[in-house]
């Protein structure tokens, strides 16, 4: 499942595009050594400790190549796995196993890496009121997978895309002429149920955002002392979000200041992949 909707409905097109990228006309190596259909199996092996994520995507990749494919595992997304662990067995037409291996592993490794990286950051905020958010700084054509991995790792999704929420940033303010004008135009245009978030870089902009009635104020690239003063001035009249130069080492300091949210693009764009292999492929007939 991704974002509460059956994964097959949302992600088949993404997976098919990835497969087409890897197989433009044919898998010439596989077709050379395996000209006819033959059933086989291979082992999915973890090569480092971490949080597994993307098992359904891994399985679905092979199903799209071979409707007889079957993935056997006792794991679920979010489980902790250890180096050397046998995580499952994929069975099906050997040609599909060979052709789909890299695409399936790319998804699983990337998603597991993000989930693991996010979990490490989210754990720092345990016991505080501050929630960890992702951003739109995702790999093109990987957003549904990467946002899902953030949730599996214990983070919270910010807006999914530009249609999903109002976030008035510096260039929007420049285009409108002021924070007050930008918020007013957003209120006139958007449904009343929409919250309006405004990005501010200075305390002067903060005061204007508060006065304009912004629902959420993003404190962008502020040092700790300025952020502390900003939270004091907001005084609960809006929710606050910290963004910019957010590292794992700063998370506890930021949470202690009392912001409601801290957003980090790094949990998607800086997460290392998790080392996972598909090994020991053998025919079963």
Describe the fold and architecture.
The protein is of the alpha/beta class and 285 residues long. 44% of the residues lie in helices and 19% in strands. Strands 6-11-10-9-8-7 form a six-stranded parallel sheet. Helix 9 links the parallel strand 9 and strand 10.
Short description:
The chain is α/β, with parallel strands linked by helices and 285 residues long.
Helical content stands at: 40-55%
How does the helix and strand content classify structurally? alpha/beta
**Average pLDDT, all residues:** 94
Beta-strand level of the residues, as a percent range?
A: 15-25%
Distance between the termini: 33 Å
Contiguous low-pLDDT stretches (5 residues minimum) are 3-9
Shape: elongated
Radius of gyration of CA atoms, rounded to a whole number: 23 Å
Strands in their spatial order, largest beta sheet: 6-11-10-9-8-7
DSSP strand count: 12
H/E series: HHEEHEEEHEHEHHEHEHEHEHE
How is the main sheet built? 6 strands, parallel
Q: Helix segment count?
A: 11
